[in-house]
Amino acid sequence: TAASKDLWTRAERIFPQGVSGQAKFFTPYPVFVTSAQGAYVTDVSGRDYVDLLMGAGPLLLGHGHPAVVEAVRKQAVSMVNPMMPTRASIEYAERLQAHMPHLERLRFTNTGSEATRSAVRVARAATGRLKIAKFEGNYHGSDDAFLVSTHSSRLQGTPQRPEPVLDYAGLSPRLLDEVVVLPYNDAESAAALIAEHGSELAAVIMEPVSFSSGGGVPARPEFAAAVRAATAAHGIVLIFDEVLCALRLGLAGAPAYLGVTPDLVCIGKALGGGLPLAAFGGRADLMDGTLGVAAGARKVFQSGTFTENPLSVAAGAASLTVLETEDALTRADKAGERLRDGLRQLLLESGATATVTGVGSIVQLHLGVSEVHNRRDVLSGDLRQTADVLLGCVADGVLWPPIHPAVTSSEHTDADIDRVLHAVDGALA
Ligand code: PMP
Q: Cell membrane as a keyword (predicted)?
Protein backbone atom coordinates (compact mmCIF):
# COMPACT_ATOMS: atom_id res chain seq x y z
CA THR A 1 0.00 0.00 0.00
CA ALA A 2 1.00 3.67 -0.24
CA ALA A 3 1.64 3.79 3.52
CA SER A 4 4.13 0.92 3.50
CA LYS A 5 5.82 2.16 0.30
CA ASP A 6 6.34 5.53 1.94
CA LEU A 7 7.90 3.91 5.04
CA TRP A 8 10.10 1.74 2.84
CA THR A 9 11.53 4.83 1.12
CA ARG A 10 12.04 6.66 4.40
CA ALA A 11 13.74 3.64 5.99
CA GLU A 12 16.20 3.49 3.11
CA ARG A 13 17.09 7.15 3.65
CA ILE A 14 17.57 6.98 7.43
CA PHE A 15 18.79 3.44 8.18
CA PRO A 16 22.12 2.38 6.66
CA GLN A 17 20.71 -1.04 5.80
CA GLY A 18 17.39 0.45 4.74
CA VAL A 19 14.45 -1.85 5.08
CA SER A 20 16.57 -4.98 5.17
CA GLY A 21 18.05 -3.85 8.47
CA GLN A 22 14.69 -3.07 9.99
CA ALA A 23 12.37 -5.63 8.51
CA LYS A 24 15.07 -8.14 7.76
CA PHE A 25 12.86 -11.13 8.39
CA PHE A 26 10.47 -10.13 5.63
CA THR A 27 12.46 -8.48 2.90
CA PRO A 28 11.38 -8.12 0.13
CA TYR A 29 7.89 -7.80 1.67
CA PRO A 30 8.30 -5.45 4.58
CA VAL A 31 5.38 -5.35 6.93
CA PHE A 32 5.38 -2.25 9.14
CA VAL A 33 3.53 -3.27 12.25
CA THR A 34 1.71 -0.64 14.29
CA SER A 35 -0.08 -2.76 16.89
CA ALA A 36 -0.32 -6.35 18.06
CA GLN A 37 -2.60 -8.45 20.21
CA GLY A 38 -2.49 -12.13 21.09
CA ALA A 39 -1.30 -14.14 18.10
CA TYR A 40 -1.80 -11.25 15.67
CA VAL A 41 -0.01 -8.14 14.44
CA THR A 42 -1.62 -5.30 12.46
CA ASP A 43 0.30 -3.29 9.87
CA VAL A 44 0.12 0.39 8.83
CA SER A 45 -2.57 -0.47 6.29
CA GLY A 46 -4.79 -2.07 8.93
CA ARG A 47 -4.11 -5.60 7.73
CA ASP A 48 -3.90 -8.48 10.26
CA TYR A 49 -1.34 -11.27 10.15
CA VAL A 50 -0.99 -14.43 12.21
CA ASP A 51 2.41 -13.83 13.81
CA LEU A 52 4.87 -16.72 13.90
CA LEU A 53 7.84 -14.50 14.70
CA MET A 54 6.58 -13.43 18.15
CA GLY A 55 9.30 -10.84 18.61
CA ALA A 56 11.84 -13.50 17.55
CA GLY A 57 10.86 -15.67 20.50
CA PRO A 58 10.18 -13.62 23.65
CA LEU A 59 6.38 -13.48 23.37
CA LEU A 60 5.60 -16.93 24.67
CA LEU A 61 2.24 -15.58 25.97
CA GLY A 62 1.48 -13.70 22.75
CA HIS A 63 1.34 -9.94 22.29
CA GLY A 64 -0.11 -7.73 25.03
CA HIS A 65 -0.94 -10.39 27.62
CA PRO A 66 -3.09 -8.52 30.22
CA ALA A 67 -1.04 -9.73 33.22
CA VAL A 68 2.20 -8.53 31.61
CA VAL A 69 0.73 -5.21 30.46
CA GLU A 70 -0.65 -4.50 33.93
CA ALA A 71 2.66 -5.36 35.64
CA VAL A 72 4.59 -3.04 33.31
CA ARG A 73 2.04 -0.24 33.71
CA LYS A 74 2.26 -0.45 37.51
CA GLN A 75 6.04 -0.56 37.47
CA ALA A 76 6.33 2.37 35.04
CA VAL A 77 4.56 4.75 37.38
CA SER A 78 6.47 3.56 40.43
CA MET A 79 10.13 3.41 39.27
CA VAL A 80 11.82 2.88 35.94
CA ASN A 81 15.53 2.47 36.53
CA PRO A 82 17.50 2.76 39.78
CA MET A 83 20.43 0.97 38.05
CA MET A 84 20.89 -1.46 40.92
CA PRO A 85 19.30 -4.69 42.12
CA THR A 86 15.81 -4.31 43.55
CA ARG A 87 13.63 -6.49 45.74
CA ALA A 88 11.83 -7.51 42.56
CA SER A 89 15.00 -8.50 40.68
CA ILE A 90 16.27 -10.54 43.65
CA GLU A 91 12.90 -12.28 43.97
CA TYR A 92 12.74 -12.98 40.24
CA ALA A 93 16.27 -14.45 40.32
CA GLU A 94 15.23 -16.67 43.24
CA ARG A 95 12.15 -17.86 41.38
CA LEU A 96 14.22 -18.68 38.29
CA GLN A 97 16.68 -20.58 40.46
CA ALA A 98 13.85 -22.57 42.04
CA HIS A 99 12.90 -23.79 38.55
CA MET A 100 16.50 -24.19 37.37
CA PRO A 101 18.55 -25.38 40.35
CA HIS A 102 21.68 -25.55 38.17
CA LEU A 103 21.63 -21.72 38.33
CA GLU A 104 23.55 -21.68 41.62
CA ARG A 105 24.41 -18.07 40.76
CA LEU A 106 22.97 -15.92 38.02
CA ARG A 107 23.53 -12.48 36.67
CA PHE A 108 21.05 -10.51 34.59
CA THR A 109 21.94 -8.85 31.29
CA ASN A 110 19.81 -6.98 28.76
CA THR A 111 20.27 -9.24 25.76
CA GLY A 112 21.20 -12.78 24.88
CA SER A 113 24.33 -11.52 23.15
CA GLU A 114 25.58 -9.98 26.39
CA ALA A 115 24.81 -13.20 28.24
CA THR A 116 26.77 -15.44 25.84
CA ARG A 117 29.68 -13.00 25.71
CA SER A 118 29.81 -12.79 29.51
CA ALA A 119 29.60 -16.56 29.94
CA VAL A 120 32.57 -16.98 27.62
CA ARG A 121 34.48 -14.36 29.62
CA VAL A 122 33.80 -16.30 32.80
CA ALA A 123 35.04 -19.49 31.12
CA ARG A 124 38.21 -17.77 29.90
CA ALA A 125 38.92 -16.21 33.28
CA ALA A 126 38.28 -19.48 35.10
CA THR A 127 40.43 -21.66 32.81
CA GLY A 128 43.11 -19.20 31.74
CA ARG A 129 42.53 -20.38 28.16
CA LEU A 130 41.35 -18.32 25.19
CA LYS A 131 40.05 -20.58 22.46
CA ILE A 132 36.38 -21.53 22.29
CA ALA A 133 34.42 -24.08 20.28
CA LYS A 134 30.90 -23.81 18.92
CA PHE A 135 28.63 -25.95 16.76
CA GLU A 136 27.82 -25.49 13.09
CA GLY A 137 24.70 -23.46 12.51
CA ASN A 138 24.28 -22.52 16.18
CA TYR A 139 23.59 -18.85 16.80
CA HIS A 140 24.87 -17.09 19.89
CA GLY A 141 24.23 -13.43 19.16
CA SER A 142 26.09 -10.56 17.64
CA ASP A 143 29.44 -10.85 19.42
CA ASP A 144 32.40 -11.12 17.03
CA ALA A 145 33.61 -14.41 18.42
CA PHE A 146 30.40 -16.21 17.48
CA LEU A 147 29.88 -14.93 13.97
CA VAL A 148 31.66 -17.91 12.53
CA SER A 149 29.84 -20.61 10.65
CA THR A 150 26.44 -19.47 11.73
CA HIS A 151 25.18 -18.51 8.32
CA SER A 152 28.16 -19.77 6.35
CA SER A 153 29.28 -23.29 5.62
CA ARG A 154 32.98 -23.29 6.34
CA LEU A 155 34.95 -26.41 7.09
CA GLN A 156 34.44 -27.94 10.48
CA GLY A 157 37.22 -29.04 12.76
CA THR A 158 39.69 -26.48 11.45
CA PRO A 159 39.87 -23.46 13.71
CA GLN A 160 38.27 -20.48 11.97
CA ARG A 161 38.97 -16.85 12.53
CA PRO A 162 36.07 -14.41 12.47
CA GLU A 163 36.43 -11.44 10.15
CA PRO A 164 39.31 -9.19 11.21
CA VAL A 165 38.13 -6.06 12.97
CA LEU A 166 39.79 -2.67 13.08
CA ASP A 167 41.71 -1.85 16.21
CA TYR A 168 40.38 1.55 17.22
CA ALA A 169 43.63 2.97 18.53
CA GLY A 170 45.94 2.24 15.65
CA LEU A 171 43.30 1.37 13.04
CA SER A 172 45.25 -1.77 12.31
CA PRO A 173 43.41 -5.02 11.61
CA ARG A 174 43.24 -7.22 14.70
CA LEU A 175 42.56 -10.91 14.39
CA LEU A 176 40.18 -12.33 16.93
CA ASP A 177 40.78 -15.55 18.75
CA GLU A 178 40.20 -18.68 16.80
CA VAL A 179 36.94 -20.54 17.08
CA VAL A 180 36.75 -24.29 16.56
CA VAL A 181 33.57 -25.24 14.71
CA LEU A 182 32.14 -28.63 15.69
CA PRO A 183 29.56 -30.88 13.99
CA TYR A 184 26.09 -30.79 15.61
CA ASN A 185 24.34 -33.98 16.67
CA ASP A 186 27.40 -36.06 15.78
CA ALA A 187 28.58 -37.35 19.16
CA GLU A 188 31.66 -39.21 17.97
CA SER A 189 33.18 -36.51 15.74
CA ALA A 190 32.37 -33.73 18.18
CA ALA A 191 33.97 -35.60 21.09
CA ALA A 192 37.08 -36.39 18.99
CA LEU A 193 37.50 -32.73 17.97
CA ILE A 194 36.99 -31.52 21.54
CA ALA A 195 39.69 -33.96 22.67
CA GLU A 196 42.02 -32.80 19.87
CA HIS A 197 41.81 -29.14 20.95
CA GLY A 198 41.16 -30.04 24.60
CA SER A 199 44.05 -28.37 26.38
CA GLU A 200 43.46 -25.06 24.59
CA LEU A 201 39.70 -24.72 24.91
CA ALA A 202 38.18 -22.44 27.55
CA ALA A 203 34.60 -23.25 26.58
CA VAL A 204 32.34 -25.26 24.35
CA ILE A 205 29.08 -23.46 23.73
CA MET A 206 26.04 -25.22 22.28
CA GLU A 207 22.36 -24.66 21.65
CA PRO A 208 20.03 -27.34 23.04
CA VAL A 209 17.87 -26.67 19.99
CA SER A 210 19.94 -25.44 17.05
CA PHE A 211 19.00 -22.14 15.44
CA SER A 212 17.25 -22.16 12.07
CA SER A 213 20.54 -22.02 10.17
CA GLY A 214 21.35 -25.27 11.98
CA GLY A 215 17.98 -26.79 11.15
CA GLY A 216 15.96 -25.99 14.26
CA VAL A 217 16.74 -29.49 15.54
CA PRO A 218 16.92 -30.51 19.19
CA ALA A 219 20.22 -31.96 20.37
CA ARG A 220 20.06 -35.72 20.84
CA PRO A 221 20.47 -36.59 24.53
CA GLU A 222 23.35 -38.99 23.76
CA PHE A 223 25.08 -36.25 21.75
CA ALA A 224 24.72 -33.78 24.64
CA ALA A 225 26.03 -36.45 27.03
CA ALA A 226 29.07 -37.08 24.82
CA VAL A 227 29.83 -33.34 24.68
CA ARG A 228 29.46 -33.20 28.48
CA ALA A 229 31.89 -36.10 28.97
CA ALA A 230 34.46 -34.73 26.51
CA THR A 231 34.43 -31.23 28.02
CA ALA A 232 34.64 -32.56 31.59
CA ALA A 233 37.60 -34.76 30.66
CA HIS A 234 39.58 -31.71 29.49
CA GLY A 235 38.55 -29.14 32.08
CA ILE A 236 36.53 -27.21 29.48
CA VAL A 237 33.55 -25.12 30.59
CA LEU A 238 30.37 -26.36 28.89
CA ILE A 239 27.89 -23.56 28.18
CA PHE A 240 24.31 -24.21 27.10
CA ASP A 241 22.92 -21.29 25.13
CA GLU A 242 19.24 -21.49 26.01
CA VAL A 243 18.48 -17.93 24.96
CA LEU A 244 15.84 -19.07 22.47
CA CYS A 245 14.53 -22.13 24.28
CA ALA A 246 14.66 -20.96 27.93
CA LEU A 247 11.18 -21.41 29.45
CA ARG A 248 9.88 -22.66 26.06
CA LEU A 249 11.31 -26.16 26.53
CA GLY A 250 9.92 -26.29 30.05
CA LEU A 251 10.50 -24.17 33.14
CA ALA A 252 13.38 -26.38 34.30
CA GLY A 253 15.30 -25.66 31.09
CA ALA A 254 17.41 -27.72 28.75
CA PRO A 255 19.38 -29.61 31.44
CA ALA A 256 16.12 -31.26 32.55
CA TYR A 257 15.05 -31.76 28.94
CA LEU A 258 18.35 -33.35 27.84
CA GLY A 259 19.36 -34.98 31.12
CA VAL A 260 22.73 -33.22 30.95
CA THR A 261 23.92 -30.42 33.23
CA PRO A 262 26.34 -27.87 31.77
CA ASP A 263 28.64 -25.63 33.82
CA LEU A 264 27.00 -22.40 32.67
CA VAL A 265 23.77 -21.50 30.90
CA CYS A 266 22.58 -18.42 29.06
CA ILE A 267 18.86 -17.67 29.13
CA GLY A 268 16.97 -14.85 27.47
CA LYS A 269 14.08 -13.91 25.19
CA ALA A 270 10.98 -15.17 27.11
CA LEU A 271 12.77 -14.29 30.36
CA GLY A 272 11.67 -10.64 30.00
CA GLY A 273 8.08 -11.39 28.99
CA GLY A 274 8.67 -9.38 25.79
CA LEU A 275 11.00 -6.72 27.23
CA PRO A 276 14.81 -6.87 27.13
CA LEU A 277 16.10 -9.25 29.79
CA ALA A 278 18.53 -12.15 29.72
CA ALA A 279 20.89 -13.83 32.18
CA PHE A 280 23.86 -16.11 32.46
CA GLY A 281 24.85 -18.27 35.37
CA GLY A 282 25.49 -21.73 36.70
CA ARG A 283 28.20 -23.17 38.93
CA ALA A 284 28.80 -21.01 41.99
CA ASP A 285 32.57 -21.62 41.98
CA LEU A 286 32.90 -20.35 38.39
CA MET A 287 30.64 -17.34 38.89
CA ASP A 288 31.97 -16.37 42.33
CA GLY A 289 35.57 -16.97 41.28
CA THR A 290 35.37 -14.56 38.36
CA LEU A 291 32.61 -12.06 39.16
CA GLY A 292 32.38 -12.41 42.93
CA VAL A 293 32.87 -9.88 45.69
CA ALA A 294 35.79 -11.72 47.35
CA ALA A 295 39.22 -10.13 47.01
CA GLY A 296 40.94 -11.29 43.84
CA ALA A 297 37.78 -12.74 42.38
CA ARG A 298 36.88 -9.80 40.16
CA LYS A 299 38.38 -10.90 36.89
CA VAL A 300 35.40 -10.33 34.61
CA PHE A 301 33.76 -6.97 34.09
CA GLN A 302 30.07 -7.20 33.39
CA SER A 303 27.72 -4.31 33.76
CA GLY A 304 25.14 -2.29 31.87
CA THR A 305 23.09 0.85 32.40
CA PHE A 306 19.77 -0.89 31.88
CA THR A 307 20.68 -4.26 33.38
CA GLU A 308 17.83 -5.83 35.39
CA ASN A 309 15.72 -2.75 34.83
CA PRO A 310 12.46 -2.93 36.77
CA LEU A 311 10.20 -2.82 33.69
CA SER A 312 11.77 -5.95 32.20
CA VAL A 313 11.85 -7.69 35.57
CA ALA A 314 8.16 -6.86 36.15
CA ALA A 315 7.18 -8.15 32.71
CA GLY A 316 9.28 -11.30 33.11
CA ALA A 317 8.00 -12.06 36.60
CA ALA A 318 4.37 -11.55 35.55
CA SER A 319 4.91 -13.80 32.55
CA LEU A 320 6.51 -16.50 34.75
CA THR A 321 3.51 -16.40 37.08
CA VAL A 322 1.20 -17.12 34.13
CA LEU A 323 3.48 -19.96 33.02
CA GLU A 324 3.45 -21.39 36.54
CA THR A 325 -0.28 -21.15 37.14
CA GLU A 326 -1.93 -21.70 33.76
CA ASP A 327 -1.45 -24.24 31.02
CA ALA A 328 0.14 -21.60 28.76
CA LEU A 329 3.19 -23.70 27.88
CA THR A 330 0.99 -26.66 26.98
CA ARG A 331 -1.11 -24.44 24.70
CA ALA A 332 1.99 -23.05 22.96
CA ASP A 333 3.34 -26.59 22.51
CA LYS A 334 0.01 -27.85 21.19
CA ALA A 335 -0.09 -25.07 18.59
CA GLY A 336 3.47 -26.02 17.54
CA GLU A 337 2.50 -29.68 17.31
CA ARG A 338 -0.60 -28.90 15.24
CA LEU A 339 1.55 -26.82 12.89
CA ARG A 340 4.17 -29.56 12.47
CA ASP A 341 1.52 -32.27 11.95
CA GLY A 342 -0.42 -30.12 9.47
CA LEU A 343 2.71 -29.28 7.49
CA ARG A 344 3.69 -32.94 7.32
CA GLN A 345 0.24 -33.79 6.01
CA LEU A 346 0.43 -31.04 3.35
CA LEU A 347 3.87 -32.16 2.24
CA LEU A 348 2.72 -35.77 2.03
CA GLU A 349 -0.22 -34.76 -0.15
CA SER A 350 1.95 -32.59 -2.40
CA GLY A 351 4.53 -35.35 -2.84
CA ALA A 352 7.33 -32.81 -2.29
CA THR A 353 10.68 -33.87 -0.85
CA ALA A 354 10.66 -31.97 2.41
CA THR A 355 10.84 -32.26 6.17
CA VAL A 356 9.61 -30.46 9.26
CA THR A 357 11.80 -30.04 12.35
CA GLY A 358 11.39 -28.45 15.75
CA VAL A 359 10.15 -29.32 19.20
CA GLY A 360 7.34 -27.93 21.34
CA SER A 361 6.54 -24.42 20.17
CA ILE A 362 9.53 -24.23 17.77
CA VAL A 363 8.83 -25.18 14.13
CA GLN A 364 10.94 -25.22 10.98
CA LEU A 365 10.13 -26.21 7.39
CA HIS A 366 12.75 -27.50 4.93
CA LEU A 367 12.02 -28.10 1.26
CA GLY A 368 14.21 -30.22 -1.01
CA VAL A 369 15.64 -32.43 1.73
CA SER A 370 14.06 -35.42 3.46
CA GLU A 371 15.99 -35.40 6.77
CA VAL A 372 17.59 -32.55 8.68
CA HIS A 373 19.85 -33.04 11.71
CA ASN A 374 22.35 -30.19 11.30
CA ARG A 375 23.62 -27.33 9.16
CA ARG A 376 24.99 -29.60 6.42
CA ASP A 377 21.54 -31.10 5.92
CA VAL A 378 19.98 -27.62 5.80
CA LEU A 379 22.40 -26.58 3.07
CA SER A 380 21.60 -29.66 1.01
CA GLY A 381 17.95 -28.54 0.82
CA ASP A 382 16.40 -25.94 -1.45
CA LEU A 383 16.85 -22.78 0.64
CA ARG A 384 15.56 -20.49 -2.10
CA GLN A 385 12.33 -22.43 -2.51
CA THR A 386 11.81 -22.67 1.24
CA ALA A 387 12.23 -18.91 1.62
CA ASP A 388 9.89 -18.33 -1.33
CA VAL A 389 7.16 -20.44 0.25
CA LEU A 390 7.51 -18.82 3.69
CA LEU A 391 7.58 -15.31 2.23
CA GLY A 392 4.68 -16.31 0.00
CA CYS A 393 2.61 -16.78 3.16
CA VAL A 394 2.87 -13.05 3.87
CA ALA A 395 0.52 -12.33 0.96
CA ASP A 396 -1.99 -14.59 2.72
CA GLY A 397 -1.75 -12.86 6.09
CA VAL A 398 0.85 -15.01 7.84
CA LEU A 399 4.18 -13.73 9.13
CA TRP A 400 6.54 -16.67 8.96
CA PRO A 401 10.16 -15.56 9.36
CA PRO A 402 12.35 -17.25 6.75
CA ILE A 403 15.58 -16.99 8.78
CA HIS A 404 14.29 -17.41 12.32
CA PRO A 405 12.48 -20.55 13.44
CA ALA A 406 8.71 -20.08 13.58
CA VAL A 407 7.46 -19.98 17.16
CA THR A 408 3.95 -20.40 18.48
CA SER A 409 2.55 -18.83 21.65
CA SER A 410 -0.13 -19.75 24.15
CA GLU A 411 -2.48 -17.49 22.13
CA HIS A 412 -2.30 -19.38 18.82
CA THR A 413 -5.64 -21.18 18.49
CA ASP A 414 -6.42 -24.16 16.26
CA ALA A 415 -8.11 -21.73 13.86
CA ASP A 416 -4.95 -19.57 13.67
CA ILE A 417 -2.80 -22.60 12.88
CA ASP A 418 -5.30 -23.73 10.26
CA ARG A 419 -5.05 -20.30 8.68
CA VAL A 420 -1.25 -20.71 8.57
CA LEU A 421 -1.61 -24.16 6.97
CA HIS A 422 -3.99 -22.74 4.37
CA ALA A 423 -1.43 -20.07 3.48
CA VAL A 424 1.40 -22.62 3.24
CA ASP A 425 -0.79 -24.82 1.04
CA GLY A 426 -1.40 -21.88 -1.30
CA ALA A 427 2.29 -20.88 -1.33
CA LEU A 428 3.36 -24.48 -2.05
CA ALA A 429 0.96 -24.66 -4.98
N1 PMP B 1 21.57 -17.10 21.46
C2 PMP B 1 20.51 -17.63 20.83
C3 PMP B 1 20.31 -19.11 20.86
C4 PMP B 1 19.56 -16.81 20.19
O5 PMP B 1 18.51 -17.34 19.57
C6 PMP B 1 19.78 -15.40 20.20
C7 PMP B 1 18.82 -14.46 19.51
N8 PMP B 1 18.20 -14.94 18.38
C9 PMP B 1 20.90 -14.90 20.87
C10 PMP B 1 21.77 -15.76 21.50
C11 PMP B 1 21.16 -13.42 20.94
O12 PMP B 1 20.23 -12.81 21.75
P13 PMP B 1 19.91 -11.25 21.58
O14 PMP B 1 19.31 -11.08 20.21
O15 PMP B 1 18.96 -10.94 22.70
O16 PMP B 1 21.20 -10.53 21.71
A: no
